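debug: dumping io for the single-chain case to check the tokenizer round-trip. Nothing else runs in this session.
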Amino acid sequence: MKVAAGFLLLLALGLGLAFWLLSGDARFLQFVLLAWAIVGMASFAVSGVFDPLVDGAMRVLGAGPAAPPVDDFAPIEAMVGRGEPVLAAEEYRARAADARVRTEALLRRAELLAGPLGQPGAAAAELEALRDSARLAPADDVRVGLALVDLYDHRLGEPGRAMAELRRLLDRDPEGRQARQLRAQLAALKARHFGDAPAARPPLPGAR
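debug: decoded output
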């Protein structure tokens, strides 16, 4: 559109200049000067005013802030595959400085700490700090909470803390999509670790 408008104005300028040279009529010179002024004002309006306004309106009317770029963790996973979990864990720590990928990076780092590096306590401490200090989205909060449940129950032997974390998730969103699954997991955990042993049957009459 801008190109077409500029072409038409330049065409009018050229025609006015040609008629002025051929006829010597001063009115054509005035037309040339007027067309030149219009070209200048139109160029300024389009480039200096219209474009910034359009860009600003697109940002305001858009779908919201731009989504964070997809962070490629493949190079770090390659470190793990080469048997370099220490380097991979440090790289995940560095990636966690970017708030857009912090949760994912720290969850992956926790897997390395709790697994190959044999530091489940450190993994739990980092995830607890993430849970307590960051304003996590509901989905991320559930992911972090379930990772802590797994650490408490299977790595640290602290089922009581695992159940407390499940209760926290339920209290946060008791009617959420995962509430039923969380309640079932809590009930299973409680039954597995704290269920009452079946009562012994009384001896049969006459049995020794």
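debug: round-trip ok. The mean pLDDT is 79.
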